Fold:
Amino acid sequence: MKAILCTAYGPPEVLQLAELPVPEPGKGQVRIRMRATAVTYSDCFVRGLAIKPVLRVLIRLVFGWRRPRRGVLGIIVAGEIDRIGEGVEGFRVGEPVFGLDGWGAGASAEYKLMKAKGVLVRKPENLTWRDAAAIPYGGLLALAFLRRGGIAAGQRVLIYGASGATGTSAVQLARHFGAHVTGVCSGRNADLVRSLGADAVIDYTTHDFSSMSDRYDLIYAAVGRRYRPPSEETFRRVLAPGGRYVTVDGWNPKLTREGMAELRDLAEAGTLRPVIDRCYPLAELADAHRYVETRRKRRNVVIDIP
Structure:
């Protein structure tokens, strides 16, 4: 099978096309014929180790010293069940599925093994493979953080970074939960954020949300430190009494199969819309990583696996 190997820690050039044996599923596993995946910031983080030197030693101990032990990166799954291992129930050969395998990786290949009890569910018929690959990462994170913030109907919610992979899902989910949503993004993305259901949009390049009179019951900072968002103190200045602030940098959520099934149902009903920035073929995975690292990415970057 064709796969993209991460041959070392470093720039996108360390990602090389390779020919690998097709893996066989073990007990409790399914083999997926991959059709699409997505490049996430987690992929770029593991590949590039763009962190403080003192932390690199710890990361190498966890993921591998010279290169990632799991040489094929990629955590987003969209494809068809190709073979079923011993003891697997609930899936059948040929069934279209999608989901996320945070620790298993290996999605940047024509075939991938995954635990049948992992974050994997049936793909709705109304989603293309590209659509399916654009939902799990941002959708699961947004769902987890909004729930941690106590999202509820009638709240006033501010989503900072509303045009990103996580932010675009957060806008739609917050609206689904009955909140009044204000999205913060650049002016070029304002129409997109409005189209996803935001009641108001603030262009951070021309307006300072923290100087406005509005107060919010829940603030979700959907971008990490790499984008240099405002400080926590700045966000807290516009919290309503008893309001809550959550950030992608402040918690490592547990992403669950139940959450994936909830996103599936919302996408099937048309409530959650996948939003895609660019698509690349598998052989150009390095270019996709390079684009994600420019910090000009909006929405999701999807990889086609023909």
